[in-house]
Design a protein that fits this description.
The complex is a heterodimer of chains A (about 80) and B (about 450).
Chain A: E1 2-6, H1 11-26, E2 32-36, H2 39-45, E3 52-55, E4 58-62, H3 68-75
Parallel strand pairs in A: 1-2
Antiparallel strand pairs in A: 1-3, 3-4
Chain B: H1 8-28, H2 35-73, H3 76-80, H4 89-98, H5 100-103, H6 107-119, H7 124-133, H8 139-149, H9 151-175, H10 199-216, H11 227-252, H12 258-274, H13 280-294, H14 300-330, H15 341-348, H16 353-365, H17 373-382, H18 387-396, H19 402-412, H20 414-438
Helix pairs in contact in B: 2-8, 2-10, 2-13, 2-14, 4-7, 4-9, 6-7, 7-9, 8-9, 8-17, 9-18, 9-20, 10-11, 11-12, 12-13, 14-17, 16-18, 16-20, 17-18, 18-20, 19-20
The chains are: A alpha+beta (about 80), B mainly alpha (about 450).
Chain lengths: ~80, ~450
């Protein structure tokens, strides 16, 4: 699956990346992680509130960092 | 001839070497012992201590809780309804100009939101209004400005930010009215709406929190009689009563255990009795008690703590750095830092158009991390900056910086970015000049 983290690089975006990777790792998923920091690309996803997580092109959460359990639900 | 190509490993090691060399050079040539340098270092520490004693507990901590409450309890999604593609234009301008309080605190949230409102939402005008006012009217900025720099400047900043954001937004929309903005046809991904509590309860919670902040920081009046003086005499009584109301709300609405709430209340009262004349200590005990009550919980109170704590972690290091730098460079009123006061009063003293313009231009290009504009403006005023230029700096500084201009350029293109920057500088300089005339 393709995981994309949208954010400009502040602490919340790094937290989102960390939680998502941990969840994917614990679920044993094969994934490709892309960090998107270019503000002009956010609109292509419809994202206005960062950090945001997109799985296979679909935005799953935006504006907050999910807990590990929430992240697992979003990835399944 | 072998070319000097560096593999990534070597480049990394060279960076470390460069850093060590720079630190060594700085320390080798450190002008310790020269009066101006020693004085500046001492000023940096004095200013930081003053902030810690005067502003952190009574002002900054409650402000973090308020900011956290906004993030946790106010639905961003419902605000976005007014900034979306189908929103009515007048409403979008109005909402854009004040929603910075609710939607954003740091620059990393302002720019994606601006880009979204511009390309997917209500368009260039309302997006620009949001872009300008957002960094200027966030809760923490207004509270700290009013507390440290005085209520008139705090109010002028808030009013100026809102008023001129609408004006700048309208001007941008008018100047570029012939450019058909190709809207991105994407569905805006909104954060989930928290099923939340009735608006009445949220509003009351905010009223109580803001009340605690206002009364705990109520300044001494110049006269000993009259409304302001009477309130000042009763400020701690009022603050304690509001604290009691908060405790009841925590019990009835947030369902926190009454035994734990009572423990915090008891600790606060005991501290107040043990240390009369030092209200900062029981206040601190109460704030820490609130953190203990709400931390780690899975419910709304836990979310409130998490948001408040996130802001604290993000902003305290930046503010600390800003205060140290401001103290080192500018000192406190009556004490110079590295920069002689004469330079400051020469460049931005008085209320000429030139000083206001210089302050506005410098502010537009300089980067201010959240809240750092407060100690820096404080230092500049102490070194001789006029009241007008200080407002000009507050209106242009947080809204723009050279890095932000580069990002805006990638979103808007050069013409619109340059127009926006010019409008901000002009508005900031003019309002500073008017404020300076009014404050004489």
């Amino acid at each position: 699956m393709k995981i994309q983290i949208l954010g400009s690089g502040c602490a919340k975006c790094r937290q989102l990346a960390a939680v998502t990777e941990q969840a994917a790792h614990e679920m044993g998923l094969t994934y490709e992680l892309e960090k998107i920091t270019d503000v002009t690309r956010f609109a292509d996803f419809g994202v206005m509130f960062t950090p945001a997580l997109a799985v296979d092109g679909v935005v799953k959460v935006s504006g907050k960092v999910p807990s590990l359990d929430e992240a697992k639900k979003l990835l399944s | 001839m072998a070319t000097l190509t560096l593999n990534p490993g070597a480049r990394h090691e060279l960076k470390i070497f460069g850093l060590l060399a720079a630190v060594f050079a700085a320390v080798y040539f450190l002008p310790v012992g020269q009066p101006r340098f020693d004085g500046a270092v001492s000023e940096a520490l004095e200013l930081t201590k003053w902030y810690a004693r005067e502003h952190v507990v009574l002002c900054l901590l409650p402000a973090f809780w308020i900011a956290g409450a906004i993030a946790a309890f106010v639905s961003q999604a419902s605000v976005m309804r007014y900034l979306g593609p189908t929103a009515s234009k007048p409403l979008a301008y109005g909402v854009g100009s004040v929603s910075g309080t609710i939607l954003a605190v740091c620059s990393c949230t302002v720019l994606p939101l601006f880009s979204g409102i511009y390309r997917m939402g209500a368009g260039l005008g309302p997006a620009t209004a949001f872009l300008y006012s957002g960094p200027a009217i966030n809760v923490l900025a207004i509270v700290m400005t009013a507390k440290v720099l005085g209520a008139p400047l705090g109010i002028a900043r808030a009013v100026g930010a809102v008023a001129f954001s609408v004006i700048i937004g309208l001007l941008m929309a008018f100047i570029f009215r012939h450019e058909e903005q190709k809207k991105v046809a994407a569905v805006i991904a909104l954060p989930e709406s928290e099923a939340g509590r009735p608006l009445r309860q949220t509003a009351t919670l905010f009223a109580v929190l803001v009340g605690i902040l206002v009364f705990a920081n109520w300044g001494a009046a110049s006269q000993t009689t009259g409304f302001f003086a009477t309130v000042f005499a009763a400020k701690w009584l009022i603050t304690s009563l509001l604290g009691g109301v908060l405790a009841i709300m925590l019990w009835r609405w947030f369902k926190l255990e009454p035994a734990r709430i009572a423990t915090v209340a008891a600790a606060t009262i005991i501290t107040a009795i043990a240390l009369p004349g030092h209200p900062t200590w029981p206040f601190l005990v109460a704030v820490l008690g609130l953190a203990w009550l709400s931390a780690g919980r899975d419910d709304e109170a836990g979310e409130w703590f998490k948001q408040a704590w996130d802001y604290t972690k993000q902003i305290v290091p930046l503010l600390l750095g800003g205060v140290l730098v401001a103290g080192f460079l500018l000192g406190r009123p009556g004490h110079e830092g590295m920069i002689p006061s004469a330079w400051i009063s020469g460049l931005v003293g008085g209320n000429s158009i030139a000083s206001n313009l210089f302050a506005a231009v410098s502010g537009a290009f300089m980067y201010f991390a959240t809240l750092t504009e407060v100690p820096i403006v404080q230092g500049l005023v102490g070194s001789g900056m006029g009241a007008g230029p200080s407002l000009a700096l507050l209106l242009a500084g947080p809204a723009l910086s050279l890095p932000a201009m580069l990002v805006l350029n990638s979103i808007l293109g050069l013409k619109k970015t340059a127009t926006y920057v010019a409008l901000v500088i002009a508005m900031a300089a003019i309002s500073g000049w008017i404020y300076g005339l009014l404050m004489v």
